[in-house]
Specification:
With about 350 residues, the chain is α+β, with helices and mostly antiparallel strands. About 40% of the residues lie in helices and about 25% in strands. It has two domains: about 150 residues, no CATH class; about 130 residues, 3-Layer(aba) Sandwich (Glutaredoxin), CATH 3.40.30. It is built from nine helices and twelve strands. The strands form three sheets. It has a five-stranded antiparallel beta sheet. The chain has a five-stranded mixed beta sheet with strand order 10-9-8-11-12, covered by helices on one side. Strands 6-7 form a two-stranded antiparallel sheet. The relative contact order is 0.09. The mean pLDDT is about 85.
Length: about 350
């Protein structure tokens, strides 16, 4: 009798052990699915229908489609769908573009994007239908949100700031959005109105090594004039920066630490030109730098001087020789930046 009980206990124990193994295996499979499958599903391309519902609501309907060409270049074209709701109220319009760039790590180096406009012709939403994959992470949602509420006329006078990371890609995307906005403007106001717009602000050729720094003037936070004339006779380092951008702050501080590391015995101008208001700029940079004795900070929220210096990104750096010749124009994250800095200051 006891033997039968013992055998039964052993049998139950074996079954329980087997059950435990099955549970463990099931849990491991679930974990595997969470780690590998869900990210794959979340990165799949959103359908156009779902994207339009996200922007215009579930009761949208397409009223008409128009193809618009740029008068000076018929090869630049876009197809716009006008969107109504079921009551017949105009919600806006959209176009779908397939943006391709070698920096993109999406399939075929491309991503589909909806560019939507509201009933007043202002940009309502820019929505990629899949995650924009690049080697360097960028907050693309914030970048796209900076276009919202602007039409082509606004984009001529109010340039959108570009992120420092993926600057080449963001420049291409910005130019494409601007191109689409110009076609949208033609659709709303006609070719004559488009041609009568005030011309774009002067396009400055990007300063490259060997160019002379152009005439510029700006007042620093202490009321002192900084200009192409006042910096002559000394080597000069100009840093464009932004105290509201996380990566800009990080890279600016890294470069500032590098300056502190190599500055001993060197005599040079060290200038920050910030796109951010003075209080925020000084709080972020002047209170934390170890180079307070040589650092000059100027505020350029309208980016007028930065445009003259052909600086589009933050942070970006100019090395200017004693005679005003540009010896470096690029990012503080450029490979071998320390070597370039040491060579410049020697």
């Amino acid at each position: 009798m006891n033997k039968e009980k013992n055998d039964k206990k052993k049998g139950n124990k074996g079954k329980n052990l087997l059950k435990t193994y099955f549970i463990i295996i099931a849990v491991l499979i679930i974990i595997f699915l969470i780690i590998f499958l869900i990210p794959t599903l979340s990165s799949r391309e959103m359908s156009l229908n779902k994207g339009l519902k996200t922007i215009f609501g579930s009761d949208y309907t397409i009223y008409e489609t128009k193809v618009i060409n740029l008068p000076d270049d018929p090869n630049i074209t876009a197809s716009f769908d006008t969107i109504l709701n079921k009551k017949g109220t105009l919600l806006g319009k959209y176009t779908l573009i397939n943006f391709t760039n070698l920096i993109l790590q999406n399939k075929d180096n491309s991503v589909k994007m909806i560019i939507a406009f509201d009933s007043d012709g202002k940009i309502k939403k820019i929505l990629p239908l899949s995650k924009i994959k690049t080697e360097i992470e960028t907050n693309w949602e914030d970048f796209f949100n900076s276009f919202v509420g602007k039409d082509f006329k606004d984009l001529l006078s109010k340039p959108v700031a570009l992120p420092a990371e993926n600057s080449e890609l963001s420049t291409s995307i910005r130019d494409k959005i601007k191109e689409i906005s110009s076609l949208s403007y033609i659709m709303d106001y006609g070719v004559e109105a488009f041609n009568n717009l005030n011309p774009e602000p002067k396009e400055y050729k990007r300063l490259v090594v060997g160019d002379k720094i152009p005439d510029f003037e700006i007042i620093d936070i202490n009321g002192n004039l900084i200009s192409n004339e006042t910096i002559k006779g000394k080597k000069t380092i100009i840093v464009s920066t932004n105290a509201s951008c996380g990566t800009c702050i990080e890279h600016t501080h890294e470069f500032d630490e590098l300056i502190n590391k190599v500055r001993k015995g060197k005599n040079f101008n060290y200038i920050f030109i910030s796109e951010t208001a003075q209080e925020k700029t000084t709080s972020e940079y002047l209170t934390k730098t170890q180079n307070k004795d040589i650092l000059k900070i100027a505020i350029d929220q309208d980016q007028e001087v930065l445009k003259l210096l052909t600086i589009e990104f933050t942070p970006e750096i100019l090395f200017v020789d004693v005679d005003g010749t540009i010896l470096f124009h690029g990012s503080p994250t450029t490979q071998n930046i320390e070597e370039k800095l040491v060579e410049f200051l020697k």
